[in-house]
Design goal:
The chain is an alpha/beta fold. It has six helices and four strands, in the order βαβααβαβαα.
């Protein structure tokens, strides 16, 4: 079993990269049939529900580790599987220690692209480039 986690800045388009790797043999993470957290996306959603803007790497405690073990267990028969989630960037140490065989694809969005997107999505009167760049750099 080989696990691949695609993560990076929140502005990165991660799903197209995941879709690009599927024909090469990467499979989506399967759901478990037990436990309160049955999918890796749900695992991230619930973990980050109380941490919408983390400022340091996250080390999930025992219940989260158990839920991750169930997800990894159900995917052990897949030769290569993984997911794409920018929130996994806050969990790099956790995932590395959890399964040393896990590999990572780290993506990045240049500041210029973030500024362009923000300008396109905001009225010019409300555009604050300093706020956008502060968010980008944190």
């Amino acid at each position: 079993m080989q696990t691949l986690i695609i993560c990076g800045t929140p502005w990165c388009e991660l799903q197209p990269l995941l879709a690009f790797l599927e024909p090469a043999g990467l499979r989506m993470a399967r759901r478990t049939n037990t436990g309160g957290v049955q999918a890796i996306a749900q695992w991230h959603e619930r973990l980050f529900a109380d941490l919408p803007a983390p400022v340091a790497p996250i080390k999930p405690d025992a219940p989260w580790q158990l839920a991750a073990e169930e997800i990894f267990s159900v995917n052990r028969t897949q030769p290569a599987w993984g997911w794409a989630d920018s929130r996994s960037s806050w969990l790099l140490d956790f995932w590395r220690d959890f399964d040393p065989g896990t590999r990572f694809v780290l993506t990045h969005t240049p500041a210029s692209s973030v500024l362009c997107r923000a300008m396109a999505d905001t009225e010019l009167a409300n555009f604050d480039s300093h706020a956008v760049l502060n968010t980008w750099s944190s």
